[in-house]
Fold this protein.
Amino acid sequence: MPAETAKHFEALEANAQTLLSVFTRAGYEAVSPAIIQPAGVFLDVVGETLRARTYVFTDPDGDELCMRPDLTVPTCRLHIERHSPANVTAKYSYNGPAFRFQPQGSDLAHTREFRQTGIEAFGEANRERAEVEIVATIVAGIEAAGLSSYTLRFGDLGLLRAILRAAEMPSHWRQRLMHLFWHPAAFKAELRRLTLEPGSAYAQIPKALREALDPNDPAAAEAAVANYLERNGIEAVGLRSTAEIAENLLGRVEDARSEPLSEKTAQLIASYLAIVSPARASARRIRELATLMGVNIESAVGAHEWRLELLARAGIDLERAEFSAEFGRALEYYTGFVFEVINPGLGRKSPVAGGGRYDHLLKAVGAEQDVPAVGAAVHTDRLLAAVNNGNGGSANV
Amino acid sequence: MSDKMILGVPSKGRLMEQTAEAFAAAGLTLRKTGNERGYRGEVVGYPDIDVAFISASEIAWYLKTGRVHVGVTGEDLVSEQMSDAASRVTFLKKLGFGRADVVVAVPDCWIDVRTMAELAEIALPFRRAHGRWYRVATKYLNITRRFFAAKGLTDYRIVESLGATEGTPAAGTAELIVDITTTGTTLAANGLRVLDDGVVLRSEANLISSNAADWSPANREIMAEITARMTAAR
């Protein structure tokens, strides 16, 4: 349905203009990043899965380009072009088409060409205040556009990070689990492996080599790997060095020497991820779990609680809001707070708006260092559909 | 276009010869009509079949779009070009030639990587050391993406490779490959090894019908007869 008729296009445009006027009045400068973008940036940041949904093509110069699959990355690139170093505060708004292949075929809520109208705030050091301002501005926009029936969904990766940091385990397990957050099945499997048999991979290392691996002597381990390859007539192929191979093997030696992750800790991590609760009650639920685990994650829970308080002060109705610990697992570039606006008529699979914190994205697309960043976009076609549908149902969580 | 049933047959190489042999074993003679270098043909004794000699990968495409009714091509090519092969085509008969496996192969010197799970495990350390995800060279973009996703592996980059894929890790243009192999000798010669659970697809040539083609009752009958003859032959 992407603007198939002039009438529909005008309705969408009017809707987007309502949003934009709310955004610009709130101080978000309107920008128009290019529709055609270098493909590599997107693929590096969002990974190969999105490539299957991105319209990628090669131009006559042989450069790999794409139709932008969202406007966040293009806005980051625009910011970096304007500011060097990029670590300065700036607020942007945008309105325009984004493009994604829909493997199940296009339908009303999932069109291959859709319009995003959104905002991004870069460089703001006061994290919770920046996050709340984004939510409040988006909510003000969609209400101005006529949406009254919606619920909110919150998540926060900072809480999981705090739990993993506080739980007793070797630091590389922590890193691995954090990375696996975006791969739920693998996360579960790894948690189980660390509890039952963290040293299982160690036994697979050839015996002759195993004995020469000492975590306190990486140089000797590297020599042992090189020696093993030579003795077995295995050619060193490719860019991955023997030092990297040795480092990975040493990690397994350490795994085998470590106490397994306690059953209790693993269970509590899993229970944390299972939390789905009304937003107001969520801080208490998380604190209860922390007490059971015997860990102190007060600074992360405090930040979460403070954010809710600021949201309430900004006029957000928290009775409409739910906290879900799992939420945020779909898109790998989010690093902290995440939120979604859901219309009951369209359902959870088709959020009307969504966004969150992505502190590593600017560096990933070319900034010299990490820059605090938070933003959100309205799926304008869905917003219009929900409003035209008489808001489609009640707004109770 | 005629009302005849169109049969797509590989236009060159071993695959063309073996297809002709498979039909011959069922007592069916494939013959080019007109010029020996032409691309049209017939099945002797079946005036209602038009034979089109086309490349194996095009046959998969033609089956998908319904431009041929029945075709002979590899499962790998069908699987690459259709994410929903089961709904678009019907596999009528495995033909027992053109056997090849699509596999995930890594440098043999990666003695710490024997499984897909271990491959996933080194994604993050590799990125830390090299500033990017590892690259997978392949011509099977879709098959690779589907297989890796099913294994929970998303942190990699595909590099499209249309030839000499096995050489890309040594050349430094990719870290690992997804490619077709028949005996494994080429992989070994390039210092590569198939992961323990890295067989993506066991492929062979198949007789396949298109669900998208325009099927008249007469053409259905011809297809059923050809399939029955091919099945009885082995």
About this structure: Residues 142 and 210 of chain B are 20 Å apart (CA to CA). Chain B touches chain A through 39 residues (CB under 8 Å).
